[in-house]
Amino acid sequence: MPEKPLAPCVRTLAGRAAWFSLPALLVLAPGCVDPSAGPTACDGLADKTLAITRADYAECAGEILGALEEFETALRRYVDGDAAAREPAASAARRLAHLMREVDFQADAWREVKGGSARTIERWPDAAMRDFNGEVINAAAQLNAVLHYPNQDNLQQGASRHAQARSAYSRFR
Amino acid sequence: MHRPEAPTPDSGRRGIVLLLILCAALGCTEQERTASFPLRQEIPLGALAVSVDGWEEVGAAHAPLSSLRTPEGEKAIAVFVGWSGLEPFAEPDRQTFAEKFLRGRLRLVDSDGFDYSTVAAMPREHYDFTSHASSMPRDWVVVFHVWVDSHGYTLRLSHPDSSKESFDVAIIQLG
Questions:
Q1: Domain range annotation of chain B
Q2: Which of B16, B87, B100, B106 to mutate to test the interface with A (most CBs of A within 10 A)?
Q3: What is the pLDDT, as a whole number, of residue B59?
Q4: Fewer CB atoms near the end CB (10 Å): N or C, chain B?
């Protein structure tokens, strides 16, 4: 038996409900299914917007470096032709993205756009930590490019940024 | 005779947009939360704190610093600020942070409502031009250039993370 068509007002309401709930779904869905979203040393850092210290950040930075290491290692195998290495690389990429969201680098960029570099210094007084963050953001961008389009050029640039992030980390850990 | 048009999805969307604009105009704009602090009382900024310890008009015989020289018709005001909680940071990061923070977050307002931004922020030793500079200066001086006949100053310190504390702007009456 054909279903009775919904009244126009019901259709409109349903359409509006979907319209309004779509952004909420987009925000919540990755968090629900993302296996990388567990407790981390970076949790809560997003709330700290003034004068992050070495004690606040060293452990989280270590986890970020660990995720970068896993990401780069799997990508090397993937670029060398091991198709099975794509999944662990993608998993490490998700883990890295999750940690970076917990630190809230995106808000740093937004503050800097609004108030200049002084805003970044207010949150990150330690120059070594600022260097580390910059290298991590660049390394993640290069390595993510490799995940989508396997190539040696982005991989080498990502590896170089990763090495510089390790060097910056050694100055504040 | 012109008959009113039946509502369409577009007109519904326009209604929502108008509602949001009305909401923004009427009640959704955030009010600035201010808190008054007397001189020498610590103003909490998360793990850090600053206190405004006093102020003075910079005299004619000042240290040879360009920021203390004023153009014709203006005078320099020095506001003394003390920091606490900066110990975890090493030099020169600590000085860079303190200078950027004070320069970006403080404003001076006179009794006529004129608003002045900072000209410079420096460790107290630089202002006093003493030979023995502290390795970790706690006391800082913030310099403003104001109209020569201005008076009745109020210092405004904007909080970098007002969501956590109970104020957006700390008000300090200098007199």
A1: 34-173
A2: B100
A3: 87
A4: N
CB A121 within 8 A of CB B100: yes
Reduce the DSSP state of residue B139 to 3 states and report it. strand
- Sequence letter at residue B26: L
Rounded to a whole number of angstroms, the distance between the first and last alpha carbons of chain A is 69
Contact B97 A121 (CB under 8 A): yes
Residues in A closer than 8 angstroms to B164, CB to CB, are 47
Does A95 have pLDDT greater than 60? yes
Check CB contact under 8 Å for B104 and A53.
no
Q: Which residues of A touch B86 (CB under 8 A)?
A: 51
| Cβ <8 Å between A12 and B164 | no
CA distance B13 to B159: 38
DSSP-assigned letters across all residues of A121-154: HHH---HHHHHHHHHHHHHHHHHHHHHHS--HHH
End-to-end CA distance of chain B: 70
Sign of CA dihedral A69, A71, A73, A75: negative
Give me the architecture of the B34-173 domain, per CATH. Answer: Sandwich (2.60)
One-letter identity of residue A154: N
Query: pLDDT per residue over B20-66, tens digit each?
Result: 666 555 555 567 899 999 999 999 998 899 999 999 999 888 888 99
Q: How many residue pairs bridge chain A and chain B with CB atoms within 8 Å of each other?
A: 51
Mutate to test the interface with B, among A122, A124, A172 (most CBs of B within 10 A): A122
Give pTM, 2 decimals: 0.77
Torsion angle defined by CA atoms of residues B29, A117, B82 and B170, in that order, rounded to the nearest 10 degrees: -10
B93 contacts in A (CB within 8 Å)? 125-127
pLDDT tens-digit readout, A56-67: 999 999 999 999
